[in-house]
Every structure is written in C-alpha cells, then in structure tokens.
Amino acid sequence: MVQNIRLGVNIDHVATVRNARGGKYPDPTRAALLAERAGADGITAHLREDRRHIGDQDIASLMQELRIPLNFEMAPTLEMQEIALKHRPNAVCLVPEKREEVTTEGGLDVVKDEARLGDFIDPLKKSDCRISIFIAAEKKQIDAAFRVGAQVIELHTGAYCDLSYDGMVAERDIELNRLVEMARYASEIGLEVHAGHGLTYNTVKPIASIVELTELNIGHFLIGESIFCGMEKAIIQMQTLINEARNNIIVD
Ligand code: PXP
Description:
By secondary structure, the protein is an alpha/beta fold. The chain has a single domain, classed as Aldolase class I (TIM Barrel, Alpha-Beta Barrel), CATH 3.20.20.70. The protein is built from eleven helices and eight strands.
C-alpha cells in the first residue's frame, strides 16, 4: 500500500486580494480555517520581505487559530529566522526570494549558500521546526540540502506545469522523469520529499503518482478555483484526484 499524500493549502493569495484594497477583508486566517474544515492537512503561508501578501499579524493569527500544522515559507534571512524562532511553526520551508519576481521562480541554490545554511538552520531545528528546502530536482541540490541538515525537500514542479500548459509533451515528460528519479534518490538518502508550485486539477495526477512524495503544497489554483465553486469543493476535488492517482500506483 502506498502512503497517502498530505495536501497543504497555500493561502497567500487570499492576502493578495485583501492587500489590493488595504484593510482586513478577506482574512487569510478565515480561509485557512475553512481549508482546515474541508480536510486540508496543513496550511502554507509565505511571509515575504516586502510583505506583499501575508503580513506579520497573519502569521501570529494562523499560529493561534490553526489546529493543523503551519508550514512557514520564508527566505533564509536573519529577519525571518527571528520571526520563525518567535512563533516556532511546525515546519519552515526555505525559499529563494527576489523582490521583482511575481512568484517564487526557482529553487533555493543550496550549493551556493551551503557554508551559511547549516548554521542558519541549526537554531530552527533546535526550536523543533522541521526544516524543508524548496529546490530544483537536481542531485547536487538534494545532496547539499541533506548536508546542511534539512529533514525535508520540496521539489519545484513549476517547470513541469509550465511545459504541460505549453503542450511541450516531450520536454514535459523529461521533466516529470527528472522529478520521479530525484524523489526516489532523495528518499533513498533519508529525506522526506514534498512537491509543489503551479499544480492544478490537470497537472496534479502525474505528480501525485510519484511514490516517494508525502506532501503537495498547492495555492494559486485552489484559491482561484474557490471563486467558482467554493474552497471546500475545490479542496475536496483536488484530494479526490490525488487519491485516485495514489490508488492507481502499482507497487511490485
Ligand atoms: N511551494 C512553494 C515552496 C511555493 O513557494 C509556492 C508558491 O508560493 C507553492 C508551493 C504553491 O504554488 P502555487 O501557488 O503555484 O500552487
């Protein structure tokens, strides 16, 4: 029997809509609680340096209200480390961050930052935060994530999703294969493997079929789809597709 995949719901874009007008509506914590009620296994929120969507108060309120785990996405900066140490979320997911990007564009270059990241991660681990690093599906990045002490890697599925939408079937399959092989490799060396970015109803099944994955983090599409059918239905439909993919895996 293949292990189920947890669904983490990223609620950043509820804050994007709120911040378009200023004020307090719609409230990301209210959305997170709805997601929790609908069966989400976790909530992800990314506190950016420029606070373009999630704000400091959102993190405080999510920590106070949620019963399911919070995956706190952040850049590896000292400011964010201090905030994480104050709140001690269940998990910290380290991501690269550029002010000019629309969304997280690539994985963190752990190889380049290796000398610093081990020391950066250490106090977070001592505070019982599980450390995940968002990386491209590359062996050298996985090895470096392991060496700096991450317990989890989250594989970036953005390229796979973009290629799917551009109809570039051969390139999409190469990317999918890379994700499959790197998930297996990471799991073999003892890392827990998650994935996310850009996933939709149309792209989730091949990713959810990767045996080693234990969690998917999905935001933009689920929040968008909630406009049309409500958050509960959107989450249930996504979970149905994920479970269908899991149930079809043949283990030999
Ligand atoms: N995982 C990580 C590390 C991310 O940075 C994001 C985007 O904030 C997601 C998952 C979710 O991506 P999307 O909003 O495209 O579903």
